[in-house]
């Protein structure tokens, strides 16, 4: 029992040291944008000024370390290109986080609430909310997150439903993006872009291959690549350096573990 | 320093004490996290669903048609009494019926028809060249289906195809596991970033 605990302490202690040192020494690894990240960036880059995108914060607070750099990079890019953002949340925990991320990035770009962006808040029963917005966004969200009637918000006056929205960006750590793909992509022919935690990437690969999902920006790696394209370093690049050194550490442990296993097996035979 | 940062820093360290061993400090932080998450979700649901969509329109604006969902919702609580529990079947039947009606066509289209059409790509590309990716998809699809085909013993051609299918499955599981490790590592790195930058202020 004690040996197992000691092994665990060594492994986790080592990981802690590796990650901390890579942060303190500021080791830098070069990374080039993957085709998917490039596709997402190019799409937002080429959208005409004043185009409306809907950003849905479909995630929990526990995935914030991975979601935050992703969301910040994409929101900064959208505001930089003078795109208008309609923020919503289909996950209760994503509500306050979504509002905070939007106001933070809008503040950096000098954008005004109600004119350049709006946050409509949370709506339960995701499928009915998603389908309802296809008819009328104002009907699903009669008030915004701050309690202002939606029809009194200047930006929302010209936005009735998905027809006025160029792209839906679902920032998710679970299966909620599937609802956007199935109901909005399928029924309203609306393009969907996803910003996902790394753990969810393989789940969405079939949708990406079939063209039901326009593009994916995934995990800290995706965030780092997006930041590089944007020309503004942030949490993605900082985290990716630590991620790379941590992976090297894990690979080393796997090799050591295998050597120990085969040596023990050989000794057992003898 | 912001009080929120101090509390978050202490709670982060409290959670990581689990790496030493299970202990009361970890348990307290874990309980706090669960309690806060449930409490927050409950408040959001109460406000956005019951207050905004039901109580305010019904009792302040007199929209009496909302009595229907109110009564249906209340019928769900009939499950707590043995005598009237059958009444809860009414809202449940409505939910299942409406849910299935909405979901089945959408899922059939998005998860089945679109996926099948994407999987059956021509082996000769538009430029006349050989489409190797389409071949890999075709072999992967057929061999994986063979692995899950249990009406015939996995011998001969079916056995070989099933064996190939297991390799495709292993590649998928490996990729998924790798991404999951990456994701969990990112969460850990995010907390280290917070501790070094905001809590300890060792980094600018």
Write structural notes for this entry.
- The complex is a heterodimer of chains A (270) and B (204).
- Chain A is of the alpha/beta class.
- Chain A has a single domain, classed as Rossmann fold.
- Chain A has a six-stranded parallel β-sheet with strand order 3-2-1-4-5-6, sandwiched between helices.
- In chain A, helix 4 links the parallel strand 2 and strand 3.
- In chain A, helix 1 packs antiparallel against helix 10.
- The longest helix of chain A is centred in the C-terminal third of the chain and has 35 residues.
- The relative contact order of chain A is 0.16.
- Chain B has 204 residues and is an all-alpha fold.
- Chain B has a domain of 84 residues.
- Chain B starts with a helix and ends in a 5-residue tail after the last helix.
- Classes of the chains: A alpha/beta (270), B mainly alpha (204).
Supply the key terms.
heterodimer; A: 270 residues; alpha/beta; Rossmann fold; six-stranded parallel sheet; 10 helices; 56% helix; B: 204 residues; mainly alpha; extended
In a nutshell, what does this entry contain?
By secondary structure, chain A is α/β, with parallel strands linked by helices. Chain A is built from 10 helices and 6 strands; from the N terminus they run H-H-E-H-E-H-E-H-H-E-H-E-H-E-H-H. Chain A has a single domain, classed as Rossmann fold.
Q: Note the beta-strand portion of chain A.
A: 5-15%
> Measured on Cα atoms, how large is the radius of gyration of chain B?
27 Å
Order of SSEs of chain A:
HHEHEHEHHEHEHEHH
The biggest sheet of chain B, with number of strands, parallel, antiparallel or mixed sense and barrel status, is:
none
Largest interface, per-chain counts?
Answer: A-B, 60 and 46 residues
- Summarize model confidence as the mean pLDDT of chain A: 92
Spatial separation of the terminal alpha carbons of chain B: 14 Å
Number of domains of chain A: 1
Average pLDDT over all residues of chain B: 91
Poorly predicted parts of chain B = none
Class of chain A, according to the CATH hierarchy? Alpha Beta
Second rung of CATH, namely the architecture of chain A: 3-Layer(aba) Sandwich
Strand order of the largest sheet of chain A: 3-2-1-4-5-6
Structural class of chain A: alpha/beta
